[in-house]
Design brief:
Strand content: under 5%
Shape: globular
Radius of gyration: 20 Å
Order of helices and strands: HHHHHHHHHHHHH
Helix content: over 70%
Distance between the termini: 31 Å
Largest sheet: none
Number of strands: 0
Length: 297
Amino acid sequence: MKQRIKKILGPIIIGITVAAFAYYIKRHPETLNQLKQLPPAAIGLLLVLYAAGFLVYVFITRVQLRMYDKKLSAQENILFNAYSSLINFFGPGQSGPVFRGIYLKKRHGLGLKQFTFTTLLYLGCFAIISAIFAFIGSRPWWQTVLLVSCAAAFSVGLIRYYKKRTHVETGGVLSPANLGWLFGAVVLQVLCIAVIYGIELHQAGASPSVGQILSYTGVANFSLFVALTPGAIGIREAFLVFSQQLHHIDSSVIVAANIIDRAVYLLFLGILFVIIMSLHAREKLQIKPDNLRSVDP
């Protein structure tokens, strides 16, 4: 009976994923049209940068797991992050972290409290670096220091509050080595994002300075904290339009650049999907229906 269910479930999951791609393209045909207009060299360069950013996130996952003496093989780590990237883009409310937490709990024994704690550490680093990027190129140095200090204080306060409230075990999690590797990897990740945005803005007809690109990147990153739609559609644009005094990039360029961004990223997700299917990721990760059920912390 279980074998029959597995045989039926496999095609269903594949069909749902393909349908999600088709539905997204149908609802947003401009992404495909924009992709056709981009120079092949630009598409290739952006795909390489997306791949680089993806591999950096794979390394971040490795660092987070090492904090609690857990480890994934290189292949499992890549397939795991590829799978969660697809879920995060097409799933409701950026649901990738939910899948990640449940998978790591069931397959590798990482408690949900521990997973949440390492995720908060990652998001804290991401928020601090994004704040630096958002203000360093547009505000006086003292305002940048003040605003980044506020972001750091909020992040540290939230992490301490969670630690105190849940009594999560930290052990050597907060060692200088662990935090140093995590912070450095996040810096590299945000730099990849900044280069991607810089190329996309150029393809949209703008000639932004380095400071504008940094500010644009920092603000766009903050939109991810409240992204409830696939690819943060509409939310990222709203953040960028309302923060024009920081990056001084025209709203028409913002819209065009974000269409380019989603067009190329959708192509990148398509490549990830092909890799997942060709390597039989669902079987290797042992993803089953009960993986989506709630688990105890």
